[in-house]
Amino acid sequence: MIGRRAARLGLILLIGVAALGYGYREEVQRLRATMTLFDESEIVENFSHMDRLFETVPIPVQVRAAPLVDGPRMAMPAEWQDWLTRRSVTGVIVLKNGVLAHESYYLGTGPDDLRISWSIAKSYLSSLFGILLAQGHVMSLDDPVTKYAPDLAGSAYEGATIRNVLQMSTGVVFDEDYLDFWSDINKMGRVLALGGSMDGFAAGLDMRDQQPGEAWRYVSIDTHVLSMVARGATGRSLPDLLAENVLEPMGVEKEPYYLSDGYGVAFALGGLNMTLRDYARLGEMFRDGGRLIGKQILPEAWVMESTTPSAKTAPGALKYGYQWWMPADAREGEFMARGIYGQYVYIDRQSGTVVAVTSADRSFREAGAFDDALQMLRRLAGQ
């Protein structure tokens, strides 16, 4: 408690100093946003309007998606309303074999809201890598990341391969504690808010406590390194690459955007903002082997490889592929993209089910919260 009070006092002092300069108005506003982003009274509104709080870059998608195919509405489980309240759910879509079986919105949100994806964004970037490989921009997943991102030479990422980064097995030391003001993830957030460089932040990491490929550990900044590789391999921005290769072929409900740093570089590891229907389309494409409405968008071999457990996770723990999760007891074809505060794109190929969920679940880190979510996702899949 003392540490949190001191951290808040430090941030208040920092804001006060910044406020002395008129030119720091936007930085002060963004610093305040980082302090209040997850407050109970603001979190739902914030998650639908991140462009009011941070710098952004558009993802230039011109193609509008074909409407989701309507189908018979499914009966929801008896505990549905209690679960929605418990997990502070803002929207749910269920597809059964590509047909819309359920769509609902809560807490004042609606189908036009561009909701923050958080780490669901990681799975979008993973999908792009399958195309970059097929196009020959990336020669091999076993290439070192420094081949395409030379700014990482001499950093903790020296010697790590693209595969290591996709599997979050780099050995890079990175504190992911969202409740610790001084953790690496929160330092990174302040870099973003103050208009600093995400590339510079990643290149500045210099500690590794295990060799690349030795073991899995969730390290969000690994995904930013993937974006550095993609940009270095092609000479193009991430929004342009994602638009041309993934989102244009899929089509979207509304033009999406990324949060960005002060240099216009997309916040690849969690800054994607899209509608719930578009998150559901990602799940449907992966359910159907990289196809959407009969059109092959991603290489099927990549879809299967990236959603198969391959990282060296601990026995009995959640499994991990290439920026995709699998439950510890996953049956074949069961996997998900997931983000903090209760964002999910869940796929169960055996039942033909896709479930997309957005939430503002401030209790997402409490014991049993993930199991509670997974249990409901599986019920919606008929498990």
TrEMBL record:
<dbReference type="InterPro" id="IPR001466">
    <property type="entry name" value="Beta-lactam-related"/>
</dbReference>
<dbReference type="Pfam" id="PF00144">
    <property type="entry name" value="Beta-lactamase"/>
</dbReference>
<dbReference type="InterPro" id="IPR050789">
    <property type="entry name" value="Diverse_Enzym_Activities"/>
</dbReference>
<feature type="domain" description="Beta-lactamase-related">
    <location>
        <begin position="92"/>
        <end position="369"/>
    </location>
</feature>
<dbReference type="InterPro" id="IPR012338">
    <property type="entry name" value="Beta-lactam/transpept-like"/>
</dbReference>
<protein>
    <recommendedName>
        <fullName>Beta-lactamase-related domain-containing protein</fullName>
    </recommendedName>
</protein>
